[in-house]
Amino acid sequence: MKAKHLLITLGLTGLLSLSLSAAAELVVGVSVSATGPAAALGAPQRNAASIMPTTIAGEPVKVIILDDGSDPNVASRNARNLVESQADVILGGSTVSNALAITEIAVEAKTPLIGMSPAKVAGATKAQWVFLVAQDNTLMAAALIEHMVAKGVKRLGVIGFADPYGDDWLKAVQDSAQQHDIALTTIEKYNRSDTSVNSQVVKLIASRPDAVLILASGTPAALPHIALSERGFTGQIYQTHGAAGAEFLKAGGKAVEGGVFVIGPLLINDLLPEEAATKATATAFIQSYSDAFGPTSISTFAGHVYDAWALLEQAVPQAKAAGEPGTEAFRVALRDALEKTTEVKGVHGVYNMSATDHFGHDERARYVVQVKNGAFELVE
């Protein structure tokens, strides 16, 4: 899939509309957190959406990009606007909370949603409309717990977002830790917009853990990491795939040296062997993104948009057999086709969707890395 620049116009409403022609088009609606506390996630996603190919499976594409400002209420309004704009599929939101807000509107309108965050939706009626390109927290948590076991961690302290992202990660960690006889010494929470976690960190250290796991995303994930370092915590500090990125490394500086992350393959593409399943795809995307936004601009979150496009490339031809874009018949058929996509090579893994798995990832979607000299290095 070769990215091409699209003509972008910015209206007073903050809506970006990217279009090839006035003819019938496939309308892709995008709602991401380009500003606000989750901007480290959403801004790269906005950028990626602006350089995606101008066609999908031969169909001309109109892309509408909206910024939710990291606010679930705005994300919900954006979804409503996208539905009213006849979106055939919606991509978003950057955070789990925002993705869940969008889900309500997408389900009501029978419009497929490709989530940019690992938002698990409760209830089969709603979940059938939601597909995820961010890796499942359960898959990623298992990799971190395996590393802890190998390093002899027996007591684990946890601090995470007081939101659905933190909650889902916590459940995944609790389940995996219990299976490996790792005790959780304390569980602390904080908000994405908080500027201090000193009281929580004092409690964490007082619980005498061997290691601490931070369940957060974007640059706010650096806050407890820095606080732990400043208070002299010498145990291993772990982070999730939601934190990994250049913005986090910049925010954390020397304080995050030695931190261990579970991460998707995109950010460490240059460290992977040529035979890696995502190597060729990621190399091409990195080149396109870097050409548009600079040689050090690549982001794991931008890759989520690419992978959504890759899924659509396989699904759209099947949906076209049932109806034209802009119709409910097409949207329903697109949902059905997305659920049947197989061996789709993205930049974050190889997707095999099914009725019981709307993540579609396997172990090819995860790697354990450590921060050394301000960069990620593979952990053997």
From TrEMBL:
SUPFAM superfamilies, per the entry: Periplasmic binding protein-like I
Signal peptide location: 1-24
Domain of life per record: Bacteria
PANTHER family: BLR7848 PROTEIN (PTHR30483:SF38), LEUCINE-SPECIFIC-BINDING PROTEIN (PTHR30483)
Matches recorded under Gene3D superfamilies: 3.40.50.2300
Organism listed in the record: Paenalcaligenes hominis
CDD domains, A to Z: PBP1_ABC_RPA1789-like
Family statement: Belongs to the leucine-binding protein family.
Residue stretches making up the Leucine-binding protein domain: 27-374
Record's protein name: Branched-chain amino acid ABC transporter substrate-binding protein
Keywords: Signal
